[in-house]
Amino acid sequence: MGEAIFGKVLINGKIRLKTGLHIGAQTEAIEIGGVDNPILKDPNTGDPYIPGSSLKGKMRNLFEKAMSADQPPEKRGRGENKWFNREIGDVYIHACNTLEDAVKCPVCRLFGISGKERGDKNYPSRTIFRDAHLCNKDELEEVIEIKYETAIDRITSAANPRPMERVVPGAEFEFEIVYNIENENEKKEDIKNLVNLMKMLEDDYLGGSGSRGYGKVEVKITRIVERPKDYYLNEGAEIKLLNKEDGVRPEEALNQILK
Ligand SMILES: [Zn+2]
Fold this sequence. Notes:
Blueprint: E1 7-17, E2 49-50, H1 52-68, E3 86-88, E4 91-93, H2 99-104, H3 106-111, E5 127-129, E6 132-134, E7 144-152, E8 159-167, E9 172-181, H4 184-202, E10 217-228, H5 229-233, E11 239-248, H6 250-258
Antiparallel strand pairs: 1-9, 1-10, 2-6, 3-4, 5-9, 6-9, 7-8, 10-11
Helix pairs in contact: 1-4, 4-6
Residues 94, 96, 102, 105, 107-108 line the site of zinc ion.
């Protein structure tokens, strides 16, 4: 993987929050006297954003779980010879161990994997997820709200309200996913998987506290464009596969580009 680029496909659109979103800032970024659970903000504008890594991580995780369901029962689950075979920190991810396997694997070729041991080769991802920036600040009275979450102390049963920062529902973020065409024969399947994962994301959540209702999103795709390598090197034309200013649902986008 990563040896040839025949072109690129760009997927653009908007992620609209249906419920409050909490993507936590790193602890060292917490200001003294600030709230307990601050959200990640762009240091230049102070506005919240969705890091490309969050979006990529979530979509990879959803894809891994969906593919795990296709494995024989003895392969499902976590551990050395299971589908979720790679321990990273306190989580397991799926990662093919050889380049031959990774190229054939719809998950690994889209999202890439790092080598197992130090010095092993990395298999670079075919996709780049840009940070998604807030794009409708003018429409919002407030961008950030403080929600008090009541944590019940399991031992004393005392209620302990903790302030949580959240981005308000209604906020919209512009995203861009860049897909590198490394194999023309796999392009359609890879793009289809990416768009379908956005559909799956809508019935899941972004950020933290999803099981408590945070991070429900709606995805609108505004543009899908294919740029063959000649677009860059020989002033070739780009191919507009989809171009809708107001955006369309992921399934409608797929209908358009696969017909
Ligand atoms: Zn794999």
